[in-house]
């Protein structure tokens, strides 16, 4: 029998990452999950490895640990990330850099570490978890949206560059789901009083969207379908909020902008 495909999932301690690692392991893949502080996950069918995607050294150690056990790597799912909340003016350059360090450059580090292995194999798959925010930035989470938009553009260029080597690249763009992303939200240290009421209303509306969001298993099921597809697309919207992307493409800009402002109670 052929050896099972080897999958590396970052940010697998909860949410999309945990659901994806669990589902793929149940479907016969050999899965390695990662976390900054991994704990024993008996019975879930996959091994956890310590990883800080902000660190070149940690990334290389993680990938080498997988290769020492498997000698190959077939699928990388870049899921690790966090949300930074705060007005654009309220957010320091260092805080913004921190958001990009994890949500964008973390994925970049993982790709740089894994891609040489996939090129040598002549096969591989990279799935980057972006967000609907890449298309529809949410007020007071501007740098989160910017990092996710950067990941989308990066993935599109990468897809062209590696296709000839047998490596597939796709981006998953979830909408609102019931994950711990909101619970682990970072907030900018500075608070400017002029934004207080707007910010509070917008964050409350966002929390409501998350509470009413979908089951994160839906994203894991989408990732499984991408992995099983012979010709996966570049982009995959997941969740009801995907319809807002369609509206953005067909509505006049002013109408769509007014709708966003109403939803987040900015006026």
Using brief descriptors, characterize the structure shown.
single chain; 267 residues; alpha/beta; Rossmann fold; seven-stranded parallel sheet; 9 helices
Q: Could you give a short description of this structure?
A:
With 267 residues, the protein is an alpha/beta fold.
Detailed description of the structure:
By secondary structure, the protein is α/β, with parallel strands linked by helices. The protein has one domain: NAD(P)-binding Rossmann-like Domain (Rossmann fold), CATH 3.40.50.720. It is 46% helix and 15% strand. It is built from 9 helices and 9 strands. It has helices at residues 15-26, 56-70, 93-103, 105-121, 142-162, 196-211, 217-228, 242-250, 253-263; strands at residues 6-9, 30-35, 47-50, 75-78, 84-85, 124-129, 167-174, 186-187, 235-238. The strands form 2 sheets. Strands 3-2-1-4-6-7-9 form a 7-stranded parallel sheet, with helices on both faces. A two-stranded parallel sheet has the order 5-8. Strand 1 (6-9), helix 1 (15-26) and strand 2 form a beta-alpha-beta unit. The radius of gyration is 19 Å and the shape is globular. The N and C termini lie far apart (62 Å). The model has no long low-confidence stretch (mean pLDDT 93).
């Amino acid at each position: 029998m052929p050896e099972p495909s080897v999958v590396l999932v970052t940010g697998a301690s909860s949410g999309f990452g945990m659901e994806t690692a669990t589902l793929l392991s149940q479907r016969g893949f050999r899965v390695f999950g990662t976390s900054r502080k991994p704990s024993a996950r008996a019975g879930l069918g996959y091994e956890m490895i310590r990883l800080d995607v902000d660190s070149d050294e940690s990334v290389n150690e993680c990938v080498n640990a997988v290769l020492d056990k498997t000698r190959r790597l077939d699928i990388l799912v870049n899921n690790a990330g966090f949300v930074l909340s705060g007005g654009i003016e309220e957010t320091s350059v260092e805080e913004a850099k921190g958001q990009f360090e994890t949500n964008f450059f973390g994925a970049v580090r993982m790709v740089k570490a894994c891609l040489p292995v996939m090129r040598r194999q002549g096969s591989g798959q990279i799935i980057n978890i972006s967000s609907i925010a890449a298309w529809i930035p949410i007020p007071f989470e501007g740098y989160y949206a910017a990092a996710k938009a950067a990941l989308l553009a990066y993935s599109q260029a990468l897809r062209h560059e590696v296709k000839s080597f047998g490596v597939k690249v796709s981006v998953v763009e979830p909408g609102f789901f019931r994950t711990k992303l909101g619970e682990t939200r970072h907030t900018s240290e500075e608070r400017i009083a002029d934004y207080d009421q707007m910010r509070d209303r917008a964050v409350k509306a966002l929390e409501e969207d998350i509470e009413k969001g979908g089951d994160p298993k839906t994203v894991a099921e989408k990732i499984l379908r991408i992995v099983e597809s012979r010709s996966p697309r570049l982009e995959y919207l997941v969740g009801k909020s995907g319809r807002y992307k369609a509206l953005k493409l067909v509505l006049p800009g002013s109408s769509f902008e007014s709708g966003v402002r109403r939803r987040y109670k900015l006026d």
